[in-house]
Amino acid sequence: MTDFQKKTVAAGATMLALTLVVAFVALLGWSILKVLSYVSAAIIPVVTGFFLSLFFKPYYRFWLKTVRNPTLALVAMLASILFPIGVFAWHAGSLAVEQIVNLIAQGPELVAKVLEWFRVTFPRARSLLDQLGVPYAELLDLYNYFGGYGKAAKMAGSGALGCLSTLATVFVSLIFFVFFLMSRPRTGADIVNELPFLKEETRAFVAGQIDAFVNILVSFFQRQTLICLLEGVMYGVGFALVGLQYGFMIGFVLGVLNLIPMFGSLVCLPMALPLAYFGQGGSAMRLVLVLGVWGLGQVADGYFITPRIQGNKTGLGYAGVVFSFFFWSIVLGPMLGLLLAIPLSAFCTVLWRALKSRYIKPVV
C-alpha cells in the first residue's frame, strides 16, 4: 500500500471509531434518560430533598456554628422557618382558604359567562365549533356539569387520592432533605476520589466542573426564590390596588409560580382576566388595568429585578431557560423535567465551556 492509501485507511478507521464512540455515548445518554423518565415518581422526592438541602445549607451552617450541635441546629433552623409560617397561617390562612374556595366555586360560572360573551361577540364561532365537533351546548352548561353530585363525588375521590400521594411525596422529600442537610459536605474532589481509574489531570478537571455546577445550582435557586417573592408582592399589591377580586392572592401566587418562567402567568392570568371583566365590580377598564399591572411587572422583572439579582449566573439567558423547561419536560416528563431543567442545562453549559476551552483551539 502506498503512503496515501495508508493515510486514507487510517482516516477512515479513525472516523469509524469516533462514530462508534459518539453513538455509544448517545445510546447511553438516551438509556439513562429513559430510565429516569420511567422511575421519575421515585426520583422526585430524592431530587427535591437534595435541592432543598443545597438551598438551606448556608442557613443550617449558621445555626450549627451558633449552637455547636447538629440536632439542635436542625431544630433551631426548622423552628425559625416554620414558626413565622405558622403565625401567618394562623392569622391569614382562614382568609386565604375562604378566598380559594370562593374562587373555585365561582370558576364554572365565569367560564359560562366567557363562553356566552364569546358566542355573542363572535357569532360565527359557534358554527366553527360545531364543524370541529366541539360540544358547545355542553360547554355552556359547564356550571351544571360540575355541580352534579356524581361528578363531584368522582372529583372528590380523585382529589383525595392525589392529596394522599402528594403528602407521601412531601414526607419522603423531608426525610431526604434532613439526610442531605446533615450529611458531611462533599466537594468535587471527594466525588472523583471514588473514580481512581481516571488520570490525575482528568480527575482535577471533573472535580472543578462538579464544584462549578453545584455553585451555579445553589446560586440560581436562592436568587430565583427571592425574585419570585418580590414579584408576588408586586403583582399582589398591584392587582389589589386596581380593585381585582381576590387580587392580592392571585398576584402573589402568580409571582411565586414564576419560579418556572411564565408558569405563574399561564396559570393565574386565565383566572384574573375573567374576574376583572365578569367578576364583582368588573368592567373593561378594570380588565385594562389588570393587564397594565401585569405588563409593568413584566417590564420591571425583565429590566430591573432579574438582571440585578440573578444576572446571568447560569449562562443560559431567558430564552435558554424557557427552552430548557420545554425540552427537559418532554424528555423526562413534566414533573421531573421541570425540577431538573435548570440544573441539567446549566451543567451542559458549564461542561461545554470547559471542554471548549480545554480541547478546542480558538481559530486565529
Per-chain topology:
Layout lengths: L2 H36 L1 H28 L2 H52 L2 H8 L4 H5 L1 H6 L1 H34 L5 H5 L7 H42 L5 H11 L5 H16 L5 H26 L7 H16 L1 H26 L5
Fill in the keyword field for this structure.
364 residues, 2 domains, 14 helices
What can you tell me about this protein's structure?
The structure is a single chain. With 364 residues, the protein is mostly helical. It has 2 domains: 44-184, no CATH class; 197-364, no CATH class. It is built from 14 helices and no strands. The protein is globular. Mean pLDDT is 75; it is low at 145-153.
> How many strand elements?
0
- The stretches of 5 or more residues where confidence is low (pLDDT under 50) are 145-153
Order of helices and strands: HHHHHHHHHHHHHH
**How would the global form be characterised?**
globular
Mean pLDDT score? 75
Structural class by sheet pairing and helices: mainly alpha
Total count of helical runs of at least 4 residues = 14
- How many discrete structural domains? 2
Task: Please state roughly what percent of the residues sit in beta strands, choosing from under 5%, 5-15%, 15-25%, 25-35%, 35-45% or over 45%.
Answer: under 5%
